[in-house]
Model the fold of this input.
Amino acid sequence: MMCAFFNTVCADPLKFLGNWFVVLPAIVLLLAAGASVVARNLIHAALFLTLSFIALGVVFIALGAEFVGLVQLLVYVGAVAMVIVFAILLTHPAQLEKSRTPFSGLGPAGGAAVGFAVLAVLLAFIFASPLGKKPLPPSAAAPVAAIGEALMGDYVVALIALGVLLTAALVGAAVLAMDDKKP
Amino acid sequence: MNFPGSGIVKGLAVTARNMVGSYFEKDRLTTEQYPEERPKLPENSRSFPFLIYDGQDPESGMRCVACKICEKECPPQCIFIIQDRDAAGKPIKRPKVFDIDISVCMCCQICVEVCPFESIRMDQEYELSSFDRFAPLLLDKARLLKSNAYYHSIHPTEAAETDAQLEVERKKKEAAASAKAAKSDKPTEAAA
Amino acid sequence: MTLQILLATSAVLFAFGLAAALSRSNAIMILIGIELMLGAANLNFIAFWRFSENPSGLAGILFVIFSIAVAAAGAAVGLSIIILVHRRIRSVEVDDASNLKG
Amino acid sequence: MMDLLEGAPIQLQAWFLGLLRSFGTPEWILAVLSALIIIGTIIGVFLVLFALTSVLERKILARAQNRYGPNRVGPFGLFQPVADGIKMITKEDLVPRTADKVVHFLAPVVMLIPALLVLAILPYGRGMVPAEMDSGILFFFAVGAGTEVAVFMAGWASNNKYSVLGAMRAIAQMISYELPLVISAIITAMVAGSLSPSAIVAAQGGFAFGFVPQWFVLTPWGFTAGLVFYIAALAEANRSPFDLPEGESELVAGHLTEYSGFKYATFFMAEYIGMFAICGMFVTLFLGGWQAPVPALTIIPSWCWFLGKICFVAFTMVWVRATLPRLRIDHMLAFAWKFLLPMGFAAFLSAACWHYAGRGPAAWILSLAIIGIPYLLLGNSFTNRFAVSRRTYQFSE
Done:
């Protein structure tokens, strides 16, 4: 077609840029997620979270799951991140800069300890398992038409249930956030 | 019951008519492109006062007699007059200095109303902006004096009326002078 | 590239999310931690789908789609609850919402 | 002759690459270069369009208000963008002392990236899609969501109450209008059976009775969906009458209050390129993409048709701007949720019925009824609810 370059990249990202196409966004993802977790400023945390969502979407696309990656971008960047930002602005305008006690519950040390413990267990199993050493299959494509047919075929009950859930969530969120003083 | 959305369509039609029409109809494009196109001012429009002289020479034809009525009446006191004196130091009926500070003038036309000699009138000149606040906006006698012909060119009706009035006054004065002359002639004759 | 790299990434992401959810005091930060954990789970699904014997089965992809939708619904309801709590007690710190504490 | 023009851009690119290949340039450089040529061409074309629009918009607005508009710089004022550009670049770049410097700097960049990225999936002509994607429509909306982040970053980092208010309004507006936008776009994808823009354009090809183009906008559901998409696109591009985020009478300039110089110019450019992109999407989805409206005119190259249609849609946006006053924020959000969204669903239903009733005359009547009834009901309830009541003044006796 018009541009062989774009089309080869789009058809099989891994073939063109190699593993870096996955590894680079994965690094960005981890850095952004880490920064988001430790950021004292809530807005910065939300912006880093947005960056990590974008990086996660790029990882999905790089792995060949183009549709899911784009849905991830659309839903998380376009909606969830913005709703989080909105909630921060609505609830916390005065003390954005100085959260009184940024940590509670287990505290920073406890949180980090639990995180490390879980991480250690997970990594131990991941690197012990023979499953992890499987080589990369040549290519895996998830054409949109096939996804659509699966959603409308085998998974139609789940899809309908999801629709009901989303409607309930929409109505529920609206009712919860409604000002009860003046209905 | 209006069809929903019909108002928007009507509005779009109006703007479309203007958009196309402004290329064809002069009425729809009333903007004047100022430096190239000048507005045609209505006859009675006025900006700042100026002094009229008759004839060719500004100094000798000056109507002003330095009576200072305008100076006294001017609400913002923007007129400044010094009467001229002859060689012997005797005041003569002519201003030596006649300044109008147009940065103070409010174009009220009171000086014109009170002038008994029809000497001061309102101008139509409006391009008076300058880079200096002081000198260019302080009009002296040389810049104030304009000919009666110029007055006719900017306010023709008013100028004609003024001229007619001046003519009547001049005739009256002549008549009075000749009557006086005749009167004064008689006693001399009688005395003789 | 092996499955291990992706799974390790996902594990680190999950640990980050868990640490945030357990240790931060702000309810919104806890929600952010939960979103990170969901992202880690999604990454696992996609990784296993990519390395599966039968990628045309699409099970991993479809599960992620459902998971994203559920997470979005959860975020919406969670944030409206946070706004409601803020309206009641003028705070979004979880320690301040302690009316039922004995 | 016309066949030559039709393929001219691709031929030129192939010729140039062939020339380089004959010099023994390595293949990978050629691959990268072929991409760079396309990127450069597209960005160049849209920058020229942006420059032209920035002056023509002002001229059209002026004509609608019986004025001349800019006509001082160059012939007919056409060099006005150059003067504007020089002014923008030479202006001082102000950053408020209390601003979040990094975020303040990044916001215009983040704004420009999605605006340029979405240009990649538009089919500019027959076989002229820069990046042929299976889910191009989804890509358009997913990447377009980045604009919201940029607007929020700009508003929050400025540390100015007007900026934050403007940004919150902008986000509320974008989230609300994204739903009708996506739903009306999905309808065309449903009828065409693909999320790929070129497949949607192909589905609108051919002529009924030999002369009526089969564009989606010429069907009842397509017209409704197109109108919903168009209105939502106005809101997404922050165009009047939905330009509340920068409503200068109440918010100074919204999220752009603290931006000056080149950063402001970047925002401005991103907004206009985003507008062209969404116009291009509208053309692709509803106006038949690069297809000619009459069989006889197919001799004109397809990319000319596409650009012409984009310019036409952009012109109508300026026309609407000249006509309609700015909405109030609650009216605007109510309009999105209570009118556009139900109309989107009605068009959805109507399209499905139209398809399964065989796309014949009966299908037309059915789909028209499914559209018309909710339109009349919703429209009337809306006009009644927001009808301007007689004003009474306190001391007016």
